[in-house]
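Technical annex, item 7. During the second reporting period the consortium partners agreed on a shared format for inverse folding records so that results from different sites could be compared directly. Each record opens with the tokenized structure and is followed by the designed sequence. A conforming record, contributed by the partner at site C, is shown below for reference.
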């Protein structure tokens, strides 16, 4: 959703894409409730260390590093560490 807002699409295109995203999320939630599957939508951090909670700094190649505890992971995979926590 953030990517859609930062790409600065035209008014109609952006609204169409966001409405499609909202519709998909609503459909997904409805299906999960129908089948009784447990779910939880949470925002997972990509700039905060999952081990110690300090701010991560970005190095070349979108690699995030914690200067406090030494945690190191690609930026796209940091939220997975939060989910496993």
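Designed sequence (site C submission):
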């Amino acid at each position: 959703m953030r990517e859609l807002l930062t790409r600065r699409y035209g008014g109609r295109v952006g609204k169409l894409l966001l409405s499609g995203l909202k519709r998909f999320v609503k459909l997904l939630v409805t299906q999960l409730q129908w089948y009784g599957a447990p779910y939880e939508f949470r925002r997972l951090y990509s700039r905060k260390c999952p081990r110690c909670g300090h701010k991560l700094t970005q190095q070349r190649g979108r690699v995030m590093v914690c200067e406090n505890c030494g945690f190191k992971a690609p930026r796209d995979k940091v939220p997975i560490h939060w989910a496993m926590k």
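Residues 11-35 form the longest helix (25 residues). The mean pLDDT is 82. All partners now use this format for quarterly exchanges.
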